[in-house]
Amino acid sequence: MRRANVSAAAALVFKRDLTLALRRWDEVTQPLIFYVVVTTLFPLATTPDLAQLRTISGGVVWVAALLSSLLALESLFRSDVEDGTMEQWVLSGQPLAWLLLSKVAAHWILTGLPLVLISPVVGTALGLPFDAWGTLVLSLLLGTATLSVLGGIGAALTVGVRRGSVLLSLLVLPLAMPLLIFGARAVSMQMDGDSPAGPLQLLAAIFFLALSLGPLAMSAAIRISVES
Amino acid sequence: MWTWLHKFASPPHAYRLLGRLAPWFGWPALVIILLAAWWGLVRAPADYQQGDAFRILYVHAPSAWMSMFIYVVMAVAAGIGLIWRIKLAHAAAAASAAVGASFTFLALATGSIWGKPMWGTWWVWDARLTSELILLFLYFGYMALRASFDDPQRADRASAVLAIVGVINVPIIHYSVEWWTTLHQPASVTKLDKPSIAIEMLYPLFMMIVGFQLYYGWLLCRRLRAEILRRERNATWLKEGI
Amino acid sequence: MDLQSFFNMGGYAGFVWSAYGLTAVVLIANWWAARRRESEELISARRRTQQLKESRT
Fold it and tell me: Which residues pair with B47 in a beta bridge?
């Protein structure tokens, strides 16, 4: 059999995952609904006053986005490991890191991106001003993408573990705290009239660091989970 | 060099060596910690600003230092175990986690006790305390992941990946938390900042750090011996050795 | 210096002594846990080898 080259294999994985996810539509929509529900909790728990909500709106949107994308990441590799697909990939001789990265990318497009796109609406409901939309979307784009890589490492480590979802949050949330700090801070700086360039650049730096090293850690973790 | 390393890392040899090494860590640790405590509590003069409350520094700062040091040791050991497949390194990482977590807890608790007279509250979202708290979460995550596998080899390798990812993240977390607190509350942090203290007031601090290091060395010897016994329960050398 | 002012710690007695006491507790607990774990493993290893010897004879 002729061996397909790396980019072709990665593209195939990407397409396959998109098609599969589109067939299981509820897995895509559930984190989104969770996201909206969680953000609704905050006004109910604190105050309906928009002026007061505005001060915490960036943080609330960010926390809710972190939690709901983590929720979606839990089952990222599970079905592939259970039905033996992952084992085939490990043995295929293709660089596993690339295959996993394209899998994560497909997953992010289906769960992370919609989350980012509806966040201005959610933010507005919490009193987020219109001119902070751009910063919110940009920071969430970088943040959820980085979180997908981090969560991918966590999902790869916990794939064979009972009650993996709680463990996954326990592993990934501490690692994701810098994202939360920079992302939420960028939004509030924009609202205060400062330039959010600093935290956004830091977010971008973390994103590229995760993008370059994350897939390696992911493939190491998958090999450990699959081998035994 | 490699044969030497493998001989050293072979379980029976390491087991005996650690047993012989332990007292060389244990007794100096005891003497130095007691000496440092005496120096910090009695000999060092009270701080002109904080009075006697600053003496907490002599246990708080060394614990904070140890908590980070042990995390790095754990990650390095995990990396060695993962790359060169040395079981003893994995065992060292496993033996370190609980000790590191207890030092992190100690740093948090003493920091909080110190904060009460200085800030007026038990907890302040100060940069150092917050990053210690996140470090504690990292330790918990590591221990939880390790505990969730039944097969020790899988537990070793999976938790090793986590430790390495974590140690890359530690500076980022530390920096981000520092940046976050300077933006939010620039005034209140300065009180706990290192005052320009005289060099002789630092002696007990360094002594305490050395004492804690030796103490950690002793703990590592003991815990590693226990780990070796547990992992090698079916090996033939055990039947003759003990 | 007299003992009274040493224990008083300039009015910060509760804080200083509880911090040092907590440190002592954590250090001793770690010491105790390490010793106990080692002796437990040693006992179980001895029992195993004993059982193996008996089963062979």
Answer: B51
Q: DSSP letters of C20-50?
A: HHHHHHHHHHHHHHHHHHHHHHHHHHHHHHH
- Do residues A170 and B141 lie in contact, with contact meaning Cβ atoms separated by under 8 Å? yes
pLDDT in tens, B78-102: 999 999 888 889 999 999 999 999 9
Question: What's the angle, vertex CA A56, arms to CA A55 and CA A61, rounded to 5?
Answer: 135
Q: Which chains reach chain A with 3 or more Cβ–Cβ distances below 8 angstroms?
A: B
Count of beta carbons in the 10 Å neighbourhood of residue A147: 28
Residue type, A137: V
C 1-57 near B (Cβ less than 8 A): 1, 6, 9-12, 15-16, 18-20, 22-23, 26-27, 29-31, 33-35, 37-38, 40-42, 44-46, 48-49, 52-53
Residue showing tokens 């920071």: A139
- For the stretch A7-50, pLDDT in tens is 888 888 888 888 887 887 887 888 899 999 999 999 899 888 88
Mutate to test the interface with B, among C18, C28, C36, C37 (most CBs of B within 10 A): C37
Please name the amino acid found at residue A158.
Answer: T
ipTM score of complex: 0.88
DSSP string of B115-177, one letter each residue: HHHHHSSS----HHHHHHHHHHHHHHHHHHHHHT-SSHHHHHHHHHHHHHHHHHHHHHHHHHH
- For residue A228, what is the DSSP state? -
